[in-house]
Amino acid sequence: MLAERTQLDFELAFFAAILAKAGDYTEVLRAHASNLATKGLLKEGLLVEQKLSQVRPADPTVFYHLACSYASLRQPDLALETLRKAVELGYRDFRAMIHDRHLATVHKDPRFRKLLKEYGEL
């Protein structure tokens, strides 16, 4: 049975088992959220990203990825609110932000442009 599983499916099961016992394991939360998104399980990935934001409340990259998850699920208000938090915490890769396909649903939103302008990136 193991030989029939993809690496991604193996990791999803493996990381889920780890998180069942140690739900605040940061590195596993990051990897699991990424794997869920890769598999197209966006809602499940969002739940993991939300947990990660509780475990790492001052990590700008965590909030950036959480914003991407909200945007991918077409929740622009939460995406932009969370993106603002990421920037306020110190996220500064504006070039990535502008070109990130995960944020495509908010790129034309005036609030996105306002955020960039506030931080001197427009």
Write a compact overview of the structure shown.
With 122 residues, the protein is an all-alpha fold.
Overall description:
With 122 residues, this protein is an all-alpha fold. It has two domains: 56 residues, no CATH class; 65 residues, no CATH class. 70% of the residues lie in helices and 0% in strands. The chain contains seven helices and no strands. Helix 1 runs antiparallel to helix 2, helix 2 runs antiparallel to helix 3 and helix 3 packs antiparallel against helix 4. The radius of gyration is 16 Å and the shape is elongated. The mean pLDDT is 95.
| Percentage of residues in strands | under 5%
Number of domains: 2
Chain oligomer state = single chain
Distance between the termini: 53 Å
Number of helices: 7
User: What pattern of helices and strands is seen along the backbone?
Assistant: HHHHHHH
How many β-strand runs?
Answer: 0
Average pLDDT level: 95
Q: Which stretches are poorly predicted, pLDDT < 50 over at least 5 residues?
A: none
What Rg do the Cα atoms give? 16 Å
State the helical fraction.
55-70%
Described by strand count, sense and barrel closure, the largest sheet is: none
Structure classification: mainly alpha
Using the alpha-carbon principal axes, give the shape.
elongated
Detail the topology: elements first, then pairings.
Elements: H1 7-21, H2 26-39, H3 42-55, H4 60-72, H5 76-89, H6 94-99, H7 110-118
Which features does this protein show?
single chain, 122 residues, mainly alpha, 2 domains, 7 helices, 0% strand
